[in-house]
Amino acid sequence: xxxxxxxxxxxxxxxxxxxxxxxxxxxxxxxxxxxxxxxxxxxxxxxxxxxxxxxxxxxxxxxxxxxxxxxxxxxxxxxxxxxxxxxxxxxxxxxxx
Length: 97
Hints:
By secondary structure, the chain is of the alpha/beta class. Helices cover 32% and strands 26% of the residues. The protein has three helices and five strands; from the N terminus they run H-E-E-E-H-E-H-E.
């Protein structure tokens, strides 16, 4: 048995930013006005050892909007962005979701 502790990044809850179908931006569980998004993310980035963040976007969100939010996340200091898509947009087979 070893007594080695977890690395700081392993002990942190993964940071998640959600873009809802209604267009709201949610950091973890807190809805955040767009005007405060970058400022809040920068503050969070300074407190975290890990630069990984998950961007969860509803499938109906326009691609340009997702890219805009990803750009803000990069500007705030998060370089490791994982995309998680909630189904809701069109599918390859044309069934719509």
